[in-house]
Amino acid sequence: MTILSVSNLNKSFGDTIVLENISFSIEENDRIGLIGLNGTGKSTLLKILVGSMPYDSGNIYIDKNIKIGYLAQDTGLEGYKTIGEALSSVFLKQKEQEDELHRLENLMASPKIYEDEDRLEDLMHQYSMLFEEFKENGGFEIESRIRGVLKGLGFTDEDLEISSLSGGQKTRLALGRILLESPDLLLLDEPTNYLDLESLQWLEGFLKNYPKAFMIVSHDRYFLDNTVKKIFELENNTITLYNGNYSEFVDKKQALARIHEKQEKIRQKEIQKLEENIQTFISHRNYIQAENRKRRLEELLPKSMSGKSSAPAVRLRFDMQDSSGKEVLRIENLGFSYGDKNILKNVNLKVFRGERIGIIGPNGIGKTTFLKILAGQLEPQEGFVNFGHQVEPVYFEQEQQDFSSKSTVLDEMWNAAPGLSLTEIRTFLAGLLFFQDDIEKTVDVLSGGEKSRLSLGRVILQGANLLLLDEPTNHLDIISKENLEEALKSFKGTIIAVSHDRYFLSKIATRIWEFSDGNIIDFDGSFSYYLEKKNETAKTEVASENKESKTVIQKIKLRKRQEREKKRQEELAIKELEENILKKEEELEELEHMLCQPEVYSNPENSQKVNKAYNQVIYDLEQLYDELDRLA
């Protein structure tokens, strides 16, 4: 069944066409990846679909019973103080219904109300109707659902303030709000940005099991391969549909490109032949034949030139004004904490000129804090950070909050390099894919990818010899990522980069720092070397276990048997709980029926008795659901 369809959709910003005659449909179980270069209109399309941005012309049909959940690049959590508040806000309607049910219960429990039978009957009717609506809206399951989401997202304290969360934690929390809403269509804009490997795997697992439709904007090839079954490519202002995951899309597009290339060669040969024929006929004054060939040539020329031109690629080059000394950075006994949480403890490291260091570790462990300390934005609480001779650092911030929202692209770049001429700035911005009127765009209308390119441009213009990069590939399309990797490999200075992009790390890193419980473990080698060492450690642990005595091995086997028995007992307990829940739900329905009987609600004693039994069954059900959540 089609739940959403778009036909002949058009959208422009001034004279710039973004979407032109876009047409597609989404079925109720579709799994779609929306791809394309940054700035091509992917986020714009999602905003149009959810109604947060107008469009110029065309038609959008959305089934009236369909609920859409939208995860924007901006997580939309600014209005909430704590994690619990952000998640509970999903159920405001149910909360109002619950409060009203309690109010009605208190009224019906009052002895005076039984003196007015009409009033009592009216209250009972209101209560019955509202109760059914509250139940259908999942009102009795709210607390257990919130607890389940909190656990799944890796949060242990619902009172944790949102302002203290990392970018990845905010993304997970925003996604959690959408999951609680259980939408029929998920629209996710770059959901993998800021996610560490563990969070990424969790999101992949969720989407694999999601029973409804979703459309994802992403440049993560591995993620798309694991989650989608259709690719919508947005290119040259229009959408082309491909069945299959990302790898299948690449194969099909390459095959089409080969076909187009062959067709183009044939057209070019015919064009050349026609041009020669025209000259021959003109020289023989056979103008009728020459005009016939010219008309044929005019038919061919637009086709030969109408093939989709390749999009311009971003041009990046990091040049430094001065070379640093051999020792770039010395970190001595560095310590930093937030309250009782140790971020860094007694860290001692040295960095030398030309090294490219990749920093890895889960989100929230302190990688960004560490970079901010190196960049001078935070002061060490213990120890020292000392730069070597002529070291000039520059910091690329992953959330890019240091832009002025109303300044233009040109303003931001000119502020970074006031000594350059307008022509030099324009030429430089063209290399970052900001052409003509693009340079007059204000920062607040830029896409995530455009902001990343602008921020990278400011870093380049500093001419620094130490690059401190926090997730530099976030928001970049695949081509831009590859060009950034090549530019960083050619850079003669020193690089310290936080990243969860395994492909990026394998291309640029010559040394790996792994964050672990306040410590930084130093691996003096590439990302492949790091993986080898981690595998060796795992093998050593396995070998050590194999040398354990027979007694220990028997204990392990015994423990496994006990675990299997425990699992079997849990399965039996779950089955018993489900049977008890079914019985309680049947009992609840029976009590609901009794509450609506005149002989009950007209008799205060009977009404109170049934109400008491009814509330007890609800309490018992909540306890059973809680126990089921604990075992499931």
UniProtKB/TrEMBL annotation:
Residues 553-594 form a coiled coil. This is ATP-binding cassette, subfamily F, member 3. It comes from Tepidanaerobacter syntrophicus. Residues 4-261, 329-542 form the ABC transporter domain. Transmembrane segments: none annotated. Keywords: ATP-binding, Coiled coil, Nucleotide-binding, Repeat. It comes from the Bacteria. GO terms for molecular function: ATP binding; ATP hydrolysis activity; nucleic acid binding. Pfam families: ABC_tran, ABC_tran_CTD, ABC_tran_Xtn.
